Amino acid sequence: MNPLHQYLLLSAMLFSVGLAGALVRRHAILVLVGIELMLNAANLNFLAFWRYGGNPEALTGIMFVIFAIAVAAAEAAVGLALIISIYRHLRTSNVDEVNKLNG
Amino acid sequence: MSLRNLVHSALCLAVSLVGLALIYLGLDAEFIGWIQILVYVGAVSILIVFAILLTRGTEAPAGRITFAPWSGLIIAGAVFATLAWTVIKSKALTEITGNPSLDVSFVVKNIGGKLVAEYVLPLQVMGLLLTAALIGAVIIALHERKGLK
């Protein structure tokens, strides 16, 4: 079994890659992918702390991750629907060009 | 995240999610590992590929990094440096190398029981949320008819 901090470092790396993707890429779908990566980093943290924590029989980490995955799936579905709708209206999926509300 | 071809990005996402699922399996969270493969690899990445293919029609192959990426990269690097520094400096975290023994079959057996006993209210709320999200997504993505707008 690896020590705990390796999992935490991997999770931090995953989070940073997701954050960089969400900040740098201009395509709306890739921004969503970055957000998914960040959610997965959080899930990895939950599981690592659950496994290495004092009381794994309580299954709290597992429960939290189950609900987080459900919320992430709902978020992905709604986000992609929004992106498709925006694409239909504005014929673009570049988040910089969606500026109709910009005064 | 740095690939130019969007479909390649989505497929790489699927591969990295499979790797993450394997890590979950290694952490004795078998249920979560398989859920991860089912939900993320099976559903979310397919959804993303579909969205990419649906929104690609008229556009020149998008996904070029048009915006000067340096500020975003610097922010992400700073976040990683802070997190890694915190984890490595923290004595309490690096000292933990072993983990309490755990019967794996116990976990899978008890998830269902806990889900309907202790966590029944969150479970119901989650079902409601998923239903609402499903209906909302369908309505948002529907074709708008001419007269409706």
What does the secondary structure layout of this molecule look like, with pairings?
The complex is a heterodimer of chains A (103) and B (149).
Chain A: H1 4-24, H2 28-52, H3 60-90
Chain B: H1 6-26, H2 30-54, H3 70-89, H4 91-94, H5 104-117, H6 120-141
Helix pairs in contact in B: 1-2
Short structural summary:
The complex is a heterodimer of chains A (103) and B (149). Chain A has three helices and no strands. The relative contact order of chain B is 0.07.
Describe the protein in words.
- With 103 residues, chain A is mainly alpha-helical.
- Chain A has one domain (4-90): Orthogonal Bundle (Helix Hairpins).
- Chain A is built from 3 helices and no strands.
- The N and C termini of chain A lie far apart (56 Å).
- The mean pLDDT of chain A is 85.
- Chain B is an all-alpha fold.
- Chain B has one domain: Four Helix Bundle (Hemerythrin (Met), subunit A) (Up-down Bundle).
- Chain B has helices spanning 6-26, 30-54, 70-89, 91-94, 104-117, 120-141.
- The model of chain B has no long low-confidence stretch (mean pLDDT 80).
- The chains are: A mainly alpha (103), B mainly alpha (149).
Radius of gyration of chain A: 17 Å
Task: Assign the CATH class of chain B.
Answer: Mainly Alpha
Q: Encode the helix/strand succession of chain A as letters.
A: HHH
Shape of chain B: extended
Oligomeric description of these chains: heterodimer
Predict the CATH topology of chain B.
Four Helix Bundle (Hemerythrin (Met), subunit A)
Give the DSSP E fraction of chain B (strand runs of 2 or more residues). under 5%
Known CATH architecture of chain B: Up-down Bundle
Annotation, overall tally of beta strands of chain A? 0
State the secondary-structure class of chain A: mainly alpha
**Quick one: CATH class of chain A?**
Mainly Alpha
Number of helices of chain A: 3
Number of domains in the coordinates of chain B?
1
Regions with little confidence, pLDDT below 50 for 5+ residues of chain B = none
CA(first)-CA(last) distance of chain B: 36 Å
Mean pLDDT of chain A comes to 85
Spans where pLDDT lies below 50 across 5 or more residues of chain A: none
Strand content of chain A: under 5%
CATH third-tier fold name of chain A: Helix Hairpins
